[in-house]
Amino acid sequence: MAASISMRSTMKLNKKLSWSHLKLILNYQRIQIQLCSTKNVYHGKDSDYFGTAQKFPEFHPEDRRICFTPEEQLMKITMPPNQPDNSKILRMAIIGDPNVGKSTLINRLLQHKILPVSTKINTTRKNTLLVLTKDEYQIIFVDTPGVLNPKTKARHRVPSSLVVDPDKAADNVDLLGVVVDVKDKFRRNTLSKTVMKILHLHRNTPTVLILNKVDAVVNKKGLLNTIISLTNKELNEKKIPLWMDKRTHKLTRREQQEDFIDSVIEKYKASKTSSGQSSSKSEETCAEDTSEEQDEEQDVSSEEDLDFRKYIARLNTCPETAVQKTGWSNFKEVFMVSALKDDGVDDLRDYMFFCAKPGNWQYHSSVLTDESPYKLAENIVWEKMMDFVKFPVYELHPQIKLWRWDWETDKLDVIMNIECGNKFLVATVAKEIPIIVEKAVEELRNLFKCLVRLELLVLLKK
Questions:
Q1: Residue range 241-254, pLDDT digits in tens
Q2: SS3 labels along the chain
């Protein structure tokens, strides 16, 4: 194929050339380039389209953006921190039940859309590190998957890392945030047993309670009863005053309100003990079945299986008194936010700056995350698949097959394959490809700060 002619050189060769003829020439060259690249995708080597073999725009370490290649990302991560003399640092992990808005909250705190978010549960599949740097402060976040009951591993065959990662993230942090969805009226007044066990294992770490989705609650005054239940009527070792309002409940006297809250807690304890006694026999009968299921899971690596067994052993060391109440008594602060509408997030961010301690930064100020740019792009497509494909797509993972910079159009060219197990899945996913590509391109443009051309190929798994 002949060398392509740029617009400037073409205009110099013939100044009388019409604009329509010029567009035809450029469009023809662009088509030839696309056909050539598509042909090489399936017959070329991966090394030709990844890594140092491809040339990208000049890398500026000071730019606070996502890099184009893992080599640039590694270079940025390993750069010495450009910290001031009065530098401060804070490490914080965010945990909570599935689909409570943890990733959306961290995106708001960072003021960058990096983590995938979706209306379906378990969109976050592993721990992800993110960095917020402002003035002399550096906050290191760890986004975690939703806290799951360990029994769900054998029941739903979820990966071990999905169950263990929240507890791992709580290690070696300075602050632990627990997110609760107050829109869910069935779960907003109690913390799950697994969450309380994790808090008990890390009881020496300061914790804060974050009530998310408060914009969906009509009666904001009723949130005080939720706070009382989740904190066991104590906040930072002080008793929480009860709300006195006839419109929220019929109890008018303070003594009646305290008796009412105590009765709710006692009923919760009684239900837990009764269910624990009734389920003890069923657990014994199902022990053989679960052991057989664990023996069948040979695909899980030995390291992940060992971590899972250690995690179960740690949970079993927690006393029953740690999970008999409806909440956690050692919360330092309570924040009511709406991560979707960016309401109340500034107060939480300022509190993190206040809790930061003098120390050396861990990363350069331009670092946003340690995640590979390839993985970030695949997560965006995964997020849009979760939004627009009607059935769960947990087994469908986009894989990058082409990643290069097109110097003719100044665009990032990305081609991903989506392999499906049967023809029905291929037809269902292919039907939603146009809207997935449209929404994913918008996210990729905002992430990489450049024009992006995305192509998704839905294939039948061989």
A1: 655 444 444 444 45
A2: CCCCCCHHHHHHHCCCCCHHHHHHHHHHHHHHHHHHHHHHHHHCCHHHCCHHHCCCCCCCCCCCCCCCCHHHHHHHHCCCCCCCCCCEEEEEEEEECCCCCHHHHHHHHHCCCCCCCCCCCCCCCCCEEEEEEECCEEEEEEECCCCCCCHHHHHHCCCHHHHHHHHHHCCCCCEEEEEEECCCCCCCCCCCHHHHHHHHHCCCCCEEEEEECHHHCCCHHHHHHHHHHHHCCEECCEECCCCCCCCCCCCCCHHHHHHHHHHHHHHHHHHHHHHHHHHHHHHHHHHHHHHHHHHHCCCCCHHHHHHHHHHHHHHHCCCHHHCCCCCCCCEEEEEECECCCCECHHHHHHHHHHHCEECCCCCCCCCCECCCHHHHHHHHHHHHHHHHCCCCCCCCCCEEEEEEEECCCCEEEEEEEEEECCHHHHHHHHHCHHHHHHHHHHHHHHHHCCEEEEEEEEEECC
